[in-house]
Amino acid sequence: MAKHRTFTAPKTNIARALLGATIVASAFAGPANTASADTATGVAAATAAKHPATAIAAHKAGGASTDHSEETKVNVTADQVLALAKAQVGTSENASGGGTKFQQWYAASQRAAETVARDGGNRAAYLNAAWCSMFVSWVGEQTGARPQVGWDAYTVAHAKWFAANHRFGTLAKPGAVVFFSWSGSKSISDIQHVGFVVKDNQNGTISTVEGNTGNGKVEERIRPKSQVVGYGYPEYAG
C-alpha cells in the first residue's frame, strides 16, 4: 500500500549521469521497463528510477522557478478548481503505485522534461512515483489555472515556487494549495504532502481534497492545522 509516498533526495548526484541522449531520444515512449534498465545500468539507474524528482537542485537559489511569466491572470475560480478536484475522488493507483492519469499526464508534459533536468532520473520514472503534487498540477492544467496553481512533481519545489512568487502564507483559504509535514515542522524543506483546501473548519482542522492519500487514492480528508507547513495562494478569478 502506498500512503503519502514522498520523493527523497539521493545521497549523490549519480542520477545526473543518466541524463543525456536517452532522455532526449526516448524520454517518453510509454511505460518503461525500469527493472531491465536498472539491470543494464546498475545502481545508478536504480537510484534515478527511484528518485525521479528530488532535492538535488531544488534547494539551490530557493529551489523554485521565479519565472514571472507564469504569473498571469486566469479566468478560473476556486470553486471550479475544487469541483474538478472533488470529481476525481476515488481514483486509485495500481499495485505498482502507478497507473493514474495524473502520473501519465505529468510524465508526458513539458514540465517533466524540466524537472528531470533539474532533479535527475527520467520521465518514465514518474509513472510510478508519488503523485500528490502531480494531482494538484493536473487539476490546475485541466481547469486552466496552472499559471496560478503551478506544476511540479516534488512538493518542496512546488511550495518554493509559491514562496518565490510571494504567494505563500499561513491562512487557510478555499482553493489554496496546502503543504503538509507530518512531524509538524514549519520548514518548507520538510514538506511531505500536498493537496487543496476545501474549507477552514474553524476548529483547528481543515477539509481538503488530496491525491496519493490513504491507500493511494484521491480522497477528501480532514487534517489538523498542526501538520500544515503553509499554503500557496493561486490568484483565482472572482
UniProtKB/TrEMBL annotation:
Gene3D superfamilies: endopeptidase domain like (from Nostoc punctiforme). Pfam families: CHAP (PF05257). This is CHAP domain-containing protein. Residues 128-212 form the Peptidase C51 domain. The lineage of its organism: Bacteria, Bacillati, Actinomycetota, Actinomycetes, Streptosporangiales. It comes from Nonomuraea solani. Residues 1-29 form the signal peptide. It comes from the Bacteria. Keywords: Signal.
